[in-house]
Amino acid sequence: MTASPMPPLIVSPASALLHWADRRRWWIFAVCALVLFAGFNGKFRIEPDSALYLSLGRNLALDQGYTYHGLPHRLAYPGLPWVHALLFNVFGEGTLLPQHVLMLLTALATLALVYRLFLLHADRPTAVVMVAGLTAVKSFYRYSFELRNDLPFALGTTAFLCGWEALAQRQRRPIRFYDIGLLVLGLGLATVMRPAIWSLLLALAAVGFIHAVRNRRLRWRAVLLVVTLPLVYWLFLRIDPRGSNQSAGEYEQFVLHSFSTDLPATMHRVFTDHLPKLLFSAVSDAMFQTTLGPANAVFSLLVIATGVMLVRERLLWGVWIAVTFLMMLLILPLDRIALPILPLLVFAWWRFIVWISDRMPTIKLKRGVLFGLLAIGIGNNASRIGGYILVQHARDFYAVFDRGVHQPMIAVAKALGANTEPNSAVLIRHNFGREVSFLSRRDVYDRRDLSLLVPDDRPLYLVEPGDDDTAAFINRFGLRSIGVVPSASPCRIRRLAMPQQR
Fold first, then answer.
1. Cα separation of 195 and 330, whole Å?
2. 59 with 66: CB under 8 angstroms?
């Protein structure tokens, strides 16, 4: 009797894709690196926060302390200004190329740590796919070229997660010294970079409490964790140049004030403004760059749900994702707030589409679902990245970047630098003060900080046209015009004086 032939082994499309990626991993890594290098131009993508960090760093490099407009600064966390100060001291103040190179290296280091994280947690093929997936996310890509603290913060949290994963895998592999180094240094780097560290600290505290309740053998570790977290933040306060060891910084004061003295208005803002922004723009922009109207909310809810469900794989991952989205809802629903958890969200989305694909009845449907959902995650992101690269290498970059809105700022900054005294105070409309302050090396005040300016013996100027805020400021102090500074600027620069000044 002839034996019947064995049925062919059916390999799921997801497994086949992982196997394909693993065999071509070096090519994939090379493509990821080339895509990042393709977006590099070394030019300052002008925006308010970057200009503030650069101004603080320059003041530190000039031994003027942690100051802005001549006053102690208590808003921005000091990590990135410290880095800028170091680079200004080493390379001088005439170029921002070292800052941009360092940011690109930060992106590459983050990808390397993402590979290590999922190599420890899953396997090599999955780690390769996660590196490719994160590189293809526009929100990760764009912050690789902006001089903000978001990507350095993500580097710190990813390093911490690598150390945490090594501890979780201690039954399978011995803990090495660099695992502890990544854990400690990653947490330290994240702590000095952004107030978003609170989300990770709260998540760690919650994990410690849950472990203490669920498992008596882990109680001593949970207690150690809960005791260590306040110690970490206390150490930060001891070195924080903002003076937070005496009172809370401005970020913390804002949050405490919002939820202690103005709770009804805060909750109204949360449900009428923050919640729609979270569901219809922030989460979908962070992951997919989609503009699908109401469908954005569906994808956002899927991302949130699949991310939080990672508690089944790593308790800390799911809890941290939940706390981060809650913080976005309550305080600031922006896509960049999700940047540190983006590797976990990419992993959660991958697991979700594999789970759906594997439950389809035929290979054809499995393949269609897998690659269809992958296309949703990658397609729009890839087109946006392509457009971003074209802008980065435009012949006249500042005419194309942000539709040329920064060109007048650059011209005004040059005019101020050439036609006003170094100790001048300048009033400007809208929220252009930070950018023009850094570019012109003058103290330029906009609607956010006009209250900080008290007219004194410094020369005082107004960049016209002004707005209602500058007009109110001028009227409040009875300032008067004493002439117009001749310059080639697209705006007029008017000299002001107090009534008693002649």
1. 14
2. yes
